[in-house]
């Protein structure tokens, strides 16, 4: 029995090692290409060792696009969208989980149904609405359509419903607490792990957003990093070393965000397996 257990555990570890390698290798290869000249991109056999062109390639990026300005714009967009989504999703999730009001289930199902609609279908009407309000070429126009996040509302609703007993809410009401006081003093501290999970999801999704930002942003001073990087790919002779160098440095903030909040992220995932 012990041998079978060890044998099974060996395959589990082997699978995890292979899966980890497959997940990490694209990022490692991106770093390798960022340190090599463009010719290394199509070399046979493929180059898998870092070179010495990292600084040179990054300098070429700085000459082509306003890299740090685009990074700052992207950071502003991601932070604002993440904070607004966390606020709206947590309040809406609290209302759907702990309050009774007419049409609650219909509203909740309607929000969930928007998740199955491809975002490309709403691109044209959203563009005309943003243009009508004069928000083209503004960071607010690039972020406003992401403020309402159906996935965030669903996650918060489920987390609050399972983590906060109804008796605790009723006891707070008997003590004279308002609904907002209950949310601020009771709900908010309990849902911090879910906050971290949703925050990482929204931040990374917004950081990688391209289609909408490419549609509404035309002023180079308003470019986010994804739009700025795409502007380097305008000729048939693409410098892949320079391009991947820009992508590599644009990925660093995402790694920093995950390292900062990974403990809360992991605790929210594993919380359901521990009583």
UniProtKB/TrEMBL annotation:
Looking up Gene3D superfamilies in the UniProt record yields: MetI-like
Q: Name one GO cellular component term.
A: plasma membrane
Q: Which CDD domains does its entry note?
A: TM_PBP2
Name its GO BP terms in alphabetical order.
transmembrane transport
Q: Which UniProt keywords apply?
A: ATP-binding, Cell membrane, Membrane, Nucleotide-binding, Transmembrane, Transmembrane helix, Transport
Q: Which GO terms describe its molecular function?
A: ATP binding
Membrane-related topology note: Multi-pass membrane protein
Where do transmembrane segments lie in this chain?
Answer: 12-31, 67-94, 106-128, 134-155, 186-207, 240-261
Report the locations given in the UniProt record: Cell membrane
What residues does the ABC transmembrane type-1 domain cover? 71-261
> What family is this protein classified in?
Belongs to the binding-protein-dependent transport system permease family.
UniProt protein name = Sugar ABC transporter ATP-binding protein
Q: What is the lineage of its organism?
A: Bacteria, Bacillati, Bacillota, Bacilli, Bacillales
